[in-house]
Amino acid sequence: MSVRGVEEAALDWVWDHRDRFALGEDALAAEGQVNRTWKPLGELARVCASVSLCTPPADPLHGRVSDLLDFAWQQTHRGELFPLMQSLEPFATYPLEVYAAFASAGFRHPGYEASAAVVARTRGWRLTEQYPTRRLGVLEAERHSGIHPHGHLPQALGRTWLGGLPEPWTFERAAGYALTHVVFHLTDWGRSPQGVPSDLADYLAHWLPPWLDSCLEAQMWDLSCELLAVAAGLPHPPDPAVLEDAWPRVAAAQDTSGAIPEEGALQDAAGEHTGTDPYDFTDCYHSTLMAVFAAALTTARLRDADHAGQGVPG
After folding, report:
1. Does residue 54 sit within a domain?
2. Among 148, 149, 170, 279, who pairs with 284 as Cys (CB 3.0-4.6 Å)?
3. Is 291 inside a domain boundary?
4. What does the pLDDT profile of the chain (314 residues) look like in tens digits?
């Protein structure tokens, strides 16, 4: 299956399961589980916002992701839920991070942005303790939401695992997810490859291929797709041989439904699961979204390379 084929099948699965991304009555509950409510919706919005920008308007996939974005925005009551979330958790950053995904696609709620700007001027907001990678994400969210960033990107980047140019043999799962999100934040989720400093770009150009190969070998499909998205978002795309090796392996892990498991061997749909879904939603929605994201960025970079006459194979 081609890169485009993986994207189409994965997006079909997302479309068919869009109701699973919907917010339930527990979205504003004090005991609600954010990772099961706002997190999936925010990730849907983030991926669709990026894919819509790198996919030509005439492409049917552009219309599909645009419809998914509209669906996701409706789940927030066209932004009305964000002020309510802020009133319940004034210093939580995830509402702003989810909102920023919508704002990056042109969906805005001026009232929420004004109130969020007030909170962002407090010492409590500036001093909230966060992992360095999360700090980068908050700075990006502030920028997209029209809020003056409360910190400086170079200093925040220098505190991350990737920003320190660590020994390559220290790469493992947690470091892998951290580095992918550092690059996502630096490139505005694939929109601006030149946002990656030259030293990091050179470092990743050298070490990303073996890291990707090790993750594919370990059947870590979710992290592999994130690394493929990083590869497609760097200032200079990887050697075509890297893509020609990686994408067929991802395609082989994709179920006929379009779903891709987070990790492990392909599961027989006739096994312990019934119906057409071989995996629980929580076990495959993120990896399937990441496949859409990585495939869209890869296709866009290959298309740009072809237009530039570089002859990179698709």
Report:
1. yes
2. 279
3. yes
4. 699 999 999 999 999 999 999 999 899 987 778 999 999 999 999 999 999 999 999 999 999 999 999 999 999 999 999 999 999 999 999 999 999 999 999 999 999 999 999 999 999 999 989 999 999 999 999 999 999 999 889 999 999 999 999 999 999 999 999 999 999 999 999 999 999 999 999 999 999 999 999 999 999 999 999 999 999 999 998 889 999 999 999 999 999 999 999 999 877 544 444 447 889 999 999 999 999 999 999 999 988 777 666 544 44
Q: How many structural domains does the chain have?
A: 1
pTM beyond 0.70, yes or no:
yes
> What is the spatial distance between Cα 71 and Cα 65, in angstroms, rounded to a whole number?
10
